[in-house]
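Students often ask why we bother predicting the structure of a whole assembly rather than each chain alone. The short answer is interfaces. A chain on its own may look different once its partners are present, and contacts between molecules only exist in the joint model. In this exercise we take two input lines together and write out one structure for the complete complex. Read the inputs first and try to guess which parts will touch.
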Amino acid sequence: MNATKWLLLTSISLMVVTAAGFMLWFGGRARVPDPATGPRGLASKTSRRGHYRVGLAPLSGPVEVGLTQSWVLWIHDPNDAPLARCKIKFDGWMPEHGHGLPTEPRVTQERSDGAYVVEGVRLSMPGFWELKVDVSGCGPSDTAIHALHI
Amino acid sequence: MLSTFSQRLRMGQALRGLAVGSVVVAGALVAFLVLNRLWPTPWNAEERRTMDSLWLGRLPAVPADPSNRFADDPRAALLGARIFRDARFSSNGKVACASCHRPELAFTDGLKLARGVGETRRNAPSVAPAAFSPWFFWDGRRDSQWAQALSPLESSAEHATTRTFCAHLVARHYREPYVAIFGDLPAVLGSADPENAGPLGTPAAQEAWTHMSEGDRDAINRVFVNIGKSLAAYERRLRIAPSRFDAYAEQISKGNGFTASGILSADEIEGLRLFMGKARCILCHRGPYFSSFEFFSLGLPLAKGQVPDEGRAGAFRQLAKDPFTCLGRYSDAHGPSDCAELRFMAKDELSFLANFKTPSLRNVAMTAPYMHDGQFADLDQVIAHYDRAPEVPYPEHTDLKPIGLSAVERADLRAFLSTLTSKIVDPFAPSP
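Now the answer. The structure tokens for the assembled complex follow.
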């Protein structure tokens, strides 16, 4: 009888200990931080002279430093109507470092929903970026600058 | 009471011994696991996150090279490994790829300027992490590992061979493996055909090249390109083994403070903190290969009489006329969408004047001398340069800013850099 009791006690304690060990071990693994993820999109911004509202976001996933990504741009007039056939120049600049993008992004597609796809955007360094969108062709030339901390 | 106790002793002595033993061992295990978790580490959450992004466990798979359909063909890798060590691929029979990329020096040569048949104007970089970079050479003048591998073969200061010379060597010494991988060798490689012809060789070789038909030149180019694709298939398979830093960062990322302690010294830990923080090294030397592979200007001083090196700014003109790019006829890319790096490459020469590619810091302690022209003999000089970030007349813009490190901090940084030393695993290394 006593032997059975000891056996039971041992089994339970071993089970508890094993479970605790597993929880700690895998709990510790789950705590490994994910790679830094940036903002999904940036709020739309009025251009310098007020002719356009410009919104932008990566085509898929978060902004990632060092990865060549496609972005989507929305160009709207001040009444928030989407504008088609705009000529767009997209550029980036790090004012604290005095250098721009390692790539020359280009608009490669104007989508039926009025959005423009810009390919070849790579932010080469973490930090503060100014993303500059020059708009022309669908109205007066104007520029919107988005600020991005990544 | 006493009699009950002795009765118990008699009845289950062996079993009880086992049980007590198990409980003690299990208790010790739990105590260790708890202690390991609770053991203080000198890192805050942000530092832990940054450190986690640097160790080899976070290394993605080697990126695909759509311009080389033999990139992951083990037969091509084996052929490439043999050619890599074959000094017959040089005009004097003494220079192999492995002459400047010596495995025992982390695939560098220990010289200020790389030396083949003659002396080049740049320091030989390591080969091991190259497959992760979109650009090759210090100035990124080639956009694939296979195109990179071809360049030294034709350079008068390196192997100083010609395209037909290399193709003839393949026909003579590697015919069987070549044909098995790439198909028949062209008929132009008959014994009567020119031994030395190529667009970049001696005047006589260039002359011979112009006398060949366009079809023959194309056929020779294809053999030449396949040599490069084999070399790339081999180089892609070089792996960097975990270093002491990786062992440390792995334990920290798992939350095992106690297991981590003792892997790095106090100086090395302080150096790591500076690397990720005050010294800002991490801005460019990031990710598991400690490089962004981007181009920057470091305001490096010019020695008296040294000709300024335009670096990245000079690469755009070369890429524009290069037949061996991702967009060229010898590429296996399925279309422009496979060649995003080249299509969207920034090419403003002024912005990239005297810019050079950020090298990996893996095995950096083994790869002296440093910088694109080997101007710094040791890591102390490198760190001192970054710390001072001197103004230089050329180029006007530099990407460095003075840091203001103390002598102790500079020594700590150097100590940390030495923790990145590890073996390079070469599955095709000849057996000793």
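Check your guess against this: Chain A touches chain B through 41 residues (CB under 8 Å).
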